[in-house]
Design a protein that fits this description.
The complex is a heterodimer. Chain A is α/β, with parallel strands linked by helices. In chain A, about 35% of the residues lie in helices and about 30% in strands. Classes of the chains: A alpha/beta, B mainly alpha.
Chain lengths: ~300, ~250
């Protein structure tokens, strides 16, 4: 499959400070790449470089086969970008603003109306299209920002934290939209919410201190993180010795004597054995909840792996 | 090319969406109408005396030239306020990335913005020109001289706008852009004040002075030197503007 976005050995220095250090990756059509990293990891810098808003100190970017430096116009024609702050002219109405964006991207006059209609429908902006952007809520402004990025049907779509400021219902809609877009475009989205990546992305990359520390299809993420965690509450205090002897259990943290955090391996999921052990011990299981690993935990685990 | 006019049209419209353009147009017109009327009054007082002189200064010399001279000075104060937000505010509001991500060259962005603000400035010039034209109802006017004045001020505001746009690309805050523009323009305006000191006059300063070239054209003496001064001036600051815009991409 053709790679729509190719980044080779990207580096960016701010003075002596190195924000992005030798990052290379590709995104093909039909892929949604989740870009994860804590604050200040270099996510936004990388995205700005991909969109030509920032020149890389070293390295090369190719969008849909066009070099971003020497064939900037053709490359940018294939790009849709939503920066971390949506670039909106607040004195315009949604309709006027999107029309202006369409003109900037050189959409033919006859094609502007259908393109506008499609984008407003996809982002659920139909009801507000004649309101001033300044008067819209943050969620709606964010949606206008997304509409602006997908308006001209670009081959490559880059979204910097697209779900910030949206309510849960909107977040679900936007994630569905991203999955839909991912079918015939190449999408990169940055976030620091892990569940977002798990729901909408096909690939994931983790960036830390300007360096890529993980780049894998989403299925690989769970394998890399061969560790799960269960929150177990029992009516009577459980015998830790019995539980920790179960194969697959790696560690047990006692929060109180009746509430335990059991860390276990995912490949050898011991949930059934644990419930069986608790039942046979007569400690009366009242709660058993799998705890989803936070981005932070995965992240810490990965950086620690790297140090070893 | 179309894209330049797309940007220019939006820039022009956005000026009229806010009260800014209306305020500027209203206040400028009121002040210049006042100076215009005082000049007309002066002319009516002087007319009997002038009738007896051979080759006396005409209506155009007494009314039109001072009116456009005043307009030049007032626009020197006003243009920095109009141009200060062009790029600077877009950068601050983070809307600049919309233009940077669109398939536009930095040159197209700068020229687009420039043309947009030039529409407004030339509209102002046009409205000012209507005042002396109204004299045609009751008297005759040296139209050639009026045309020279019109050309002089049109070139002058083109140079002002280019300077303002450049400052707006490099300043971090609109106020700084306005102050910088005002400083450069005022310095270039007063640069030929040394010419009054006969012993120490500097030809270089005289050449660089905006006022000198402006007055040359105003007097009806349209020479290549003065026209090319303004064109070079404008082109230089536009090119610097392109560099200033690109600098944001290259380093921080």
């Amino acid at each position: 499959m053709a790679n729509l976005i190719t980044a080779e050995h990207l580096s960016r220095y701010y003075g002596k400070y190195c924000a992005v250090n030798d990052v290379s990756f590709t995104v093909a059509k039909g892929e949604v790449l989740g870009f994860l990293g804590p604050n200040g990891a270099g996510k936004t810098t990388t995205m700005q470089m991909l969109c030509g808003n920032l020149a890389p100190s070293f390295g090369q970017i190719t969008i849909n086969g066009f070099d971003l430096l020497s064939q900037a116009k053709q490359a940018k024609q294939c790009l849709g970008y939503l920066p971390d702050t949506p670039p909106l002219y607040k004195e315009l109405t949604v309709h006027e603003f999107l029309r202006y964006c369409a003109q900037l991207h050189g959409i033919r006059k006859t094609a502007i109306a259908p393109a506008l209609k499609l984008a407003t429908e996809r982002c659920g902006l139909g009801s507000v299209s004649h309101r001033l952007i300044a008067n819209l809520s943050k969620g709606y402004q964010q949606r206008v920002g997304i509409a602006q990025a997908i308006l001209h049907q670009p081959e490559a779509i880059i979204l910097d934290e697209p779900t910030v400021g949206l309510d849960p219902l909107q977040i679900r809609e936007i994630r569905a939209l991203i999955r839909e877009l991912g079918q015939d475009h190449a999408v990169i989205l940055s976030t620091h919410i892990l569940s977002e990546v798990q729901e909408s992305c096909s690939h994931v990359q983790i960036i830390h201190q300007g360096q890529l520390i993980l780049s894998t299809p989403i299925a690989g993420l769970n394998q890399t993180m061969d560790e799960g965690c269960l929150l177990v509450t029992t009516h009577l205090p459980a015998d830790l010795g019995v539980l920790s002897a179960i194969p697959g259990v790696t560690a047990i943290e006692a929060i109180t004597d009746k509430q335990l955090k059991i860390h276990h391996s995912l490949t050898e999921n011991p949930t059934q054995q644990i419930t069986a052990a608790i039942n046979s011990g007569g400690w009366e299981l009242t709660e058993l909840t799998p705890i989803k690993k936070s981005m932070e935990a995965i992240f810490i685990a990965l950086t620690q792996d790297k140090d070893l | 090319m179309n894209l330049i006019f797309t940007i220019a049209a939006r820039e022009f419209k956005s000026l009229f969406v806010s009260p800014l353009a209306w305020t500027v147009l209203g206040i400028l017109q009121a002040i210049l109408a006042y100076t215009f009327l005082t000049q007309v009054e002066t002319f009516t007082l002087l007319q009997p005396k002038l009738a007896s002189i051979d080759n006396a200064p005409g209506l155009a010399d007494i009314v039109v030239t001072p009116l456009f001279g005043n307009a030049g000075i007032i626009l020197l104060l006003v243009t920095p306020l109009l141009t200060m937000r062009l790029i600077c505010e877009e950068r601050r509001n983070k809307t600049l990335s919309l233009l940077l991500t669109a398939p536009l060259s930095p040159m197209e962005i700068i020229i687009g913005k420039y043309v947009g603000i030039l529409y407004l400035l030339w509209l102002i010039v046009l409205l000012i020109t209507l005042m002396p034209l109204s004299l045609l109802i009751g008297s005759s006017l040296d139209l050639g001289k009026l045309a020279a004045n019109f050309l002089a001020i049109a070139l002058l505001v083109a140079a002002f706008a280019a300077t303002g746009l450049y400052m707006s690309t490099i300043a971090s805050h609109p106020t700084i852009a306005a102050m910088g523009t005002f400083g450069i323009l005022l310095l270039l305006w007063i640069l030929d004040w040394t010419s009054t000191l006969q012993a120490q006059r500097s030809e270089l300063f005289e050449y660089l002075s905006l006022l000198r070239h402006f007055q040359n054209i105003q007097s009806g003496l349209i020479s290549t030197v003065d026209i090319s001064y303004f064109l070079l001036f404008t082109a230089t600051f536009l090119l610097l503007g392109v560099r200033g815009l690109d600098k944001g991409r290259l380093q921080k």
